[in-house]
Structure formats: C-alpha cells, structure tokens
From TrEMBL:
Its EC number is 2.5.1.-. Pfam families: Prenyltransf. PROSITE patterns: UPP_SYNTHASE. Substrate binds at residues 25-29, 37, 41, 69-71, 73, 75, 192, 198-200. GO terms for cellular component: cytosol. This is Isoprenyl transferase. GO terms for molecular function: ditrans,polycis-undecaprenyl-diphosphate synthase [(2E,6E)-farnesyl-diphosphate specific] activity; magnesium ion binding. It is an enzyme of class 2 (transferase). It comes from Rhodospirillum rubrum (strain ATCC 11170 / ATH 1.1.1 / DSM 467 / LMG 4362 / NCIMB 8255 / S1).
Length: 244
C-alpha cells in the first residue's frame, strides 16, 4: 500500500480514533521463505510491537488486534502449541514496556480454553496497565463475533426471564452494553492485511459503520508506514453514516 507519509499526531485529530486490525499472512510469509509457520508467527509478533509503538504517534487512541479466533483451534495441534508459547512469551516480555509507554492492555474473548498460567498472565497484564490511557490496546483471543452476539443475547434473555429487564426496553444500545467491547468506541477503520478481503467473524456488531482498508502487505512485513497509509486512506474518505 502506497500513500503520502502521515505526520506525527499533532493533537488536531478527534480524541477517540479506533483502529481494528485483522493480522493476516503469517503462514504465507513463512511458506514463501521455506520456513515453518511458527517463524511467521514470531515475525508477526514483531509487527505487533511496531504497530503498538506507532499507533499513538498517528493519533490512534484505541487499537484492537485479532490475535486468535475461536475457529483457530481447528489448526494442527503443534501449531496451536507454538502459538500458545508465543502468547506466553509476549505477555511475559511486553507488559513492562506497555506499562512504561502508557498502554492499557485488555483481552476480549473466552478464556476458559487457555491454560491457567496464560489466564494469570492476562489478568496480571490487565491489572498492571489499567491506569494507562495513552493507548487502549485490546487483543481478541479465542474470540468470535457471532459467539459474542449470541452470548449477549443469552445474557439479555436471562435478565428478562428473571424479571430485571422489560423486553420492550431492548434496543441497540442495551444489547451493545452486553458486548465485550461495551466500554470501547466502535472502530473507525478496520484493516486487514495480506490482501484478503474478508471480515472473518471479527467485531461483527461493532464495525457496522467502520471504513474497511485491505492492505496487500503480509502481516510480518506490516510497518509503521503501512499503518500510516491505512490511516491516510481513512482520512480521505467521507463518512455519512447512512445520511446524504
């Protein structure tokens, strides 16, 4: 993706600017180099670091990354084991830097399939960074958009059955409050790398009016300039939200 350079954030952009990214292409990057898929995932973790560091400079206040989907458990057992090992490594090694750089970490998705030590690392990371507000980093792990909406509907059904909620009071706002992202603004832009043009069950409710940017760059090669190009693309668009 080519675009004019985006300058450092000068404070003129809206106070809330949310970018969500589907990080795609690790496996293809590795395959093209004759390397195991794990090598692609390791290089992809370096791209996460680059993007997190660059985001505040580009005026991004909220960054949400699709780290591991509920469908990814279908991958070979060895690859899943490697991914869990990389997740442990990231959580152990990066939290200190996130805290020092003003980044708040949150993880969305069902945690019960992760090992106890990974859950503890997630909880510790969230606790250690909860007072930060330079960048709100959300990582979706064992997450699926349809699953999230179904869980929210189930929660509403329980409240109605218990007599705590009038069915007529259920609207978009009420349902949205039962989602995992209830305290986050909806994404302004959704970026998918590697040239694929699919949503892949990511933030289905939240991206109703998000701008979509599809980058041909494989995730392990995704750089600050590529993120800046996606931001520039977004700012060139006119958002009407259904109006004229």
């Amino acid at each position: 993706m080519q675009a004019d350079p985006v300058p450092l954030f000068d404070g003129s952009a809206p106070s809330s600017f949310h970018v969500a990214i589907i990080m795609d292409g690790n496996g293809r990057w590795a395959h093209a180099r004759g390397l195991p898929r794990t090598a692609g995932h390791k290089r992809g973790a370096e791209s996460v670091r680059r993007v997190v560091e660059a985001a505040p400079e580009l005026g991004i206040s909220h960054l949400t990354l699709f780290g591991f989907s509920s469908e990814n458990w279908k991958r070979p057992e060895g690859e899943i084991s490697d991914l869990m090992g990389l997740l442990r490594l990231y959580l152990r090694n990066e939290i200190r830097d996130l805290k020092r750089n003003g980044v708040r970490l949150r993880v969305i998705g069902r945690r019960e399939r992760f090992s106890r030590d990974i859950v503890a690392l997630i909880e510790d990371g969230e606790s250690d960074t909860r007072d930060n507000d330079r960048l709100h980093l959300t990582i979706a792990l064992n997450y699926g958009g349809r699953q999230e909406i179904a869980d929210a509907a189930r929660a509403l059904a329980r409240e109605v059955a218990a007599g705590r909620l009038d069915p007529e009071a259920i609207d978009e706002e009420v349902l949205g409050q039962r989602l995992l992202t209830d305290d986050l603004p909806d994404p302004d832009v959704l970026v998918r790398t590697s040239g694929e043009q699919r949503i892949s069950n990511f933030l289905l409710w939240q991206i109703a009016y998000s701008e979509l940017v599809f980058s041909p760059v494989l995730w392990p090669e995704f750089s600050r300039d590529d993120l800046a190009a996606a931001v520039a693309d977004f700012h060139q668009r006119e958002r009407r939200f259904g109006g004229v």
